[in-house]
Amino acid sequence: MKFSKKLIIWYLEHQRNMPWRQTKDPYSIWLSEIILQQTRVSQGLPYYLAFKTAFPTVFELAAATEEEVLKLWQGLGYYSRARNLHYTAQYIVRELNGVFPKTYDQLLKLKGVGDYTASAIASICYNEVVPVIDGNVYRVLSRVFGLDTPINSSPALKEYKSLASQLIDVSRPATFNQAMMEFGAIQCKPQSPDCTICPFADRCFALQHAKVSELPVKLKKTKIKKRYFNYFVVRLPDNTLLIQQRKNVGIWEGLYEFPLIESNKLMEPEALEKEEAFSHLVRNKSFSLTRYKEAPIVHKLSHQHLYTRFYVLDICEAPNLKVDQSLIPVATIRDYPVPVLIGNFIESFF
């Protein structure tokens, strides 16, 4: 039996019931694919439902503020996805009258839409015969056909896409693509897949050569960078807080945080008080500085670990505000989109 036919038979029996599988609306498919990038379905589903409720169509999403979008995205990570989502929604409404492009090549021109997302939308919504390649698909093809080209190397996409193009069911590209992704997600899992019930057990290269745990091959990850964050929760007598918005600073762009001093190692309060940025906060006025916890909080991102300490800084007079800083009532702190690191602190402290 052909690979595609066997795969689709498996899919029709085992597919999970997901809301984006009940439609061919390009807005819904696009939204789900952006949310599910580098995100598990179990984590992404509540966000998808929340976005669909808040922004039922691309017009409502385009009309929202970036801050509203980031707040709804809070906790999902990789915030550039949210900013690109908002930008693209505005572009589609303003430049394309709310109509999504209908081909793979046209979809690729949208900000935040790469090969995978363009392939998914084109095949699912418009039945274009173009295969999707994501982490799940890489894993299935690598194991079944014995491909050992590292999946995070430059040649990988072309090689895997060429093979997938030969395998795709041209009469049912949408079903085939969804089947490939679903098969990798729940059957050909990264760790300890149950190969005894796999429909491809009789032909799987990895199973026959005892390489299931070795495929797919990945190049060694980039070395993890350590960063040291010292946050100051600045409180004033009128029950206001000082917050600032991160702009053009790498991670968490557009999100809010407390005033920050980043150092090259863990620092004690006495050393931090000598920093110029700290002097700007207190303005030679009396202050009280209390460390929230002795041990630093370690917040792990994909390529960096943040060693973070929070300090409660009570001052009697507001500092000179920088362009990106604001004084807000304490009661409104939860209204602002913040990184998970800050959000967790807010929930435990306020």
Describe this protein's structure:
It contains 15 helices and 8 strands. The chain is of the alpha+beta class. It has 2 domains: 206 residues, Hypothetical protein, domain 2 (Endonuclease III, domain 1); 125 residues, Alpha-Beta Complex (Nucleoside Triphosphate Pyrophosphohydrolase), CATH 3.90.79.10. Strands 1, 4, 5, 6 and 7 form a 5-stranded mixed sheet that branches. It has a 3-stranded antiparallel sheet with strand order 3-2-8, with no helix packed on it. It is elongated and about 80 Å long. It comes from Aquimarina intermedia. Adenine glycosylase active on G-A mispairs. MutY also corrects error-prone DNA synthesis past GO lesions which are due to the oxidatively damaged form of guanine: 7,8-dihydro-8-oxoguanine (8-oxo-dGTP). Its EC number is 3.2.2.31. It catalyses: Hydrolyzes free adenine bases from 7,8-dihydro-8-oxoguanine:adenine mismatched double-stranded DNA, leaving an apurinic site.
